[in-house]
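Consider the following input, taken from an annotated entry for Amino acid/amide ABC transporter ATP-binding protein 2, HAAT family (Tistlia consotensis USBA 355).
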Amino acid sequence: MSVLTVAGLSAGYGDVDILSGVDLRVEPLEIVTIAGTNGAGKSTLVKALMGLVPRVSGRLEFEGTSLLSLPAEKRLAMGISYVPQVANVFASLTVMENLEVVEGVADRRGRIATLLESFPVLRERARARAGALSGGERQQLAFARALMPEPRLLVLDEPTAALSPALVHQVLETIRELPRMKVSVLLVEQRARQALTISNRGYILDSGTVVIADTAERLLSDSRMAELYLGDH
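Applying the prediction step yields:
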């Protein structure tokens, strides 16, 4: 069974459709990249998945259960975690405090120990305030926070935004390892070419609809598509 199934999804605000007839899926332990130019509808898609868009229709299922009538907090409780582009950690709290305040975790101490083992840089900076971390460290903390309740799907919205090239590589390598932690990843990313190198499959959005869907390898090898949609990154 697919972790996430989207079929004929339309979404928008008021009378305006931003998404129209979007189809996509995420299989267990896959990394799937959503790419597209600015204004293609990537952010609206993420918000629709998380229950943050007022008008959504079509088919939207998590492990076979429809999400359409469920509020955002119910989707989180089902096993979907979301890392937004901004405001994804508490800057005034320490690394440990950021992990300790996450709700819905049965064995909090054990889960924190597991995540600090998986993110050793966080273990070294456990007493540091999140606001003092580097961009790459801060994103690792955001990932660890999202992983605290042991989700089966992790939705990442532009995780490399505003990072230096060296930190972009570091963050993408961290994402590459996430399926080892028994979580599937849906990655919305402006740096499409780099994101596809760590992905199983990809979808290209244009004007609110999927124009190309294929394996990451074939998307990267299609020179015409790459020129149109992947840019230089």
